[in-house]
Amino acid sequence: MSDYLVDSVFKPLDTNNDGKMTMAEWSQDNRPSAVKAFKDRDVNKDGVVTLQEARDFGRKDKANDALFREADTNKDQSLSHAEVTAYYASKEGPVR
Known about the structure:
The chain is mostly helical. The chain is 59% helix and 6% strand. It contains six helices and two strands; from the N terminus they run αβααβααα. The chain has a two-stranded antiparallel sheet with strand order 1-2. Helix 1 (2-13) runs antiparallel to helix 4 (51-60). The chain is globular, with a radius of gyration of 13 Å.
């Protein structure tokens, strides 16, 4: 479940489809919270977050459990693409 959520966010933001996300791809406005979130995921501090780094972070971050419960609007214990898209649109705006 965690990998699915991470992939659903990561892949649309990885605009050049290289499996790495730069800060520019991550956030258009460099809000402090976005910068911190990026740095938290950039484990090797090379200035990019790989899909694997994002997945690893998602697996250890228990916030995904609460996110899952909130995004699962029909409470069927699974997330559809529509539920994930709607959840992130409600929090961050439409997926780019």
